Amino acid sequence: MSRDLTVRRLGRQPYEPIWQAMKAYTDARGKDTPDELWLLEHDPVFTLGQAGKMEHVLMPGDIPVVPVDRGGQVTYHGPGQIVAYPMFDLRRLGVGVRELVNRIEQALIDTLAEWNIEAVRREGAPGVYVADAKVGALGLRVRRGCSFHGLAFNVNMDLEPFHRINPCGYKGLAVTQVLDLGGPSRLADVEQVLVEKLCQQFGFTARPAAPVLPELAVPAAASA
């Protein structure tokens, strides 16, 4: 049975207000609250997950470092990268955390396959890789049976900031992007396919919504 997925394309956004809004949406939602997918680009920022160690932040320079409550190590977000935040009720979907990760990874793999780019998983290192270079990173949190945070998919960006960190805690890990792999340069083109593949993985029908944060998230986000 297909379920509706509210899809919000939020454009370029600073990191911390979106993070607070995600937490507020998750904390306020009930059993009938719609699942949502937020798509955006972030202003340049390094985020350090719960397992993160500052030793993996080598020389951040003028880019802020924000410790956050997702899983994983350190990563970079910036313009030209698709960030997708799935706010899913996992109990309602009948999906566990491991399956959530697997399905998101598969959606990324299937998206890249649209342009004949062969991507794979790597055991013990969540994300998606092409020829040993990481193109998509995952960092998730599940609270009250619902997911937030999500994935970062490099499309057409300045990759230099990844040299200022050990990406995902791995020294010397190569990072790549869709454009350099022969795919399109426009985020909208990649985003459209990614939404289709995520919907296929989770049995959703995408329902576009206004490019604003849901009202449910606003009060807590504003007071955080």
Tag the structure with descriptive keywords.
alpha/beta, 8-stranded mixed β-sheet, 25% helix
Structure summary:
The protein is of the alpha/beta class. 25% of the residues lie in helices and 29% in strands.
Shape: globular
Instruction: Kindly report the oligomeric state of this protein.
Output: single chain
Radius of gyration: 16 Å
The end-to-end distance, rounded to whole angstroms, is 37 Å
The largest pleated sheet is described as:
8 strands, mixed
**Low-confidence segments, ≥5 residues, pLDDT <50?**
220-224
Instruction: Sketch the topology as an H/E string, one letter per element.
Output: EHEEEEEHHEEEEHEH
Mean pLDDT, all residues: 92
Protein structure class: alpha/beta
Helix content, binned percent: 25-40%
The percentage of residues in β strands lies in: 25-35%
Count of strand segments: 11
* Count of discrete alpha- or pi-helical segments spanning 4 or more residues: 5
Describe this entry's structure for a reader.
Strands 1, 2, 6, 7, 8, 9, 10 and 11 form an 8-stranded mixed sheet that branches. Helix 3 (97-113) packs across helix 4. The chain is 25% helix and 29% strand. It has 224 residues and is an alpha/beta fold. It is globular, with a radius of gyration of 16 Å. The model is unreliable at 220-224 (pLDDT under 50). Strand 1 (3-13), helix 1 and strand 2 (36-42) form a beta-alpha-beta unit.
Topology:
Layout: E1 3-13, H1 15-28, E2 36-42, E3 45-48, E4 65-67, E5 74-77, E6 81-87, H2 90-93, H3 97-113, E7 128-130, E8 133-143, E9 146-154, E10 174-175, H4 187-202, E11 204-208, H5 218-223
Parallel strand pairs: 1-2, 1-11, 3-4, 8-10
Antiparallel strand pairs: 2-6, 3-5, 6-9, 7-8, 8-9
Helix pairs in contact: 3-4
